Amino acid sequence: MKLALNKQLATNYKSASQKARVLTEHWVDESVFCPNCGHLDIDKYPNNRPVADFYCSNCREDYELKSKQGKIGMKIVDGAYRAMIKRLQDANNPNFFLLNYNLHNLEVLNFLVIPKHFFVPEIIESRKPLASTARRAGWVGCNILLQGIPQTGKIFFVKNRQVESRKKRCLRNGKRLYFCARKMKSPRRAGCLT
Ligand SMILES: [Zn+2]
Hints:
Blueprint: H1 16-31, E1 43-44, E2 54-55, E3 62-69, E4 75-80, H2 81-89, E5 95-102, E6 107-114, E7 124-126, E8 141-145, E9 155-159, E10 162-163, H3 167-183
Parallel strand pairs: 3-5
Antiparallel strand pairs: 1-2, 2-3, 4-8, 5-6, 6-9, 7-8, 9-10
Bound molecules: zinc ion.
Zinc ion is lined by residues 34, 36-37, 39, 56, 58-59, 61.
């Protein structure tokens, strides 16, 4: 697994957010296997699909990708609050990929998956509505609260630039978590979320 993002892919894009999206999506497409079933390829949905960014053609799990430059921090800023809650309550709620990279040298620092049973409404915080002077006045965004997720709910592929290269270990973690999820319907009730 290479940690460098392929800079050349971004040369035709002007905005920083478009560049980041192209580079990080490509890296995931090339580098990541399905953490649920171990299938070597995961596939990208066509752009602008609201449900998820990637899926596994073998086990049909969906994956939402969020990337963040610099430090991971305690919260991840994400899109519309209501849409997020609705998606997490859906029968096909996605798992969550978080890719954290260094903007200066375009290298992956951390990459982790949060299995869907830990990616729940309890860890989503609504932000203040945008001010009446804003272009989208009243719009409410959300934060994903990473500190609300137990360590067992964060499966790292890359941690502090170190590749967790032992696929079996990741997979075993994944299976244990999924098995665990079937036994307990709510992570919160089982005391996994604080
Ligand atoms: Zn799979």
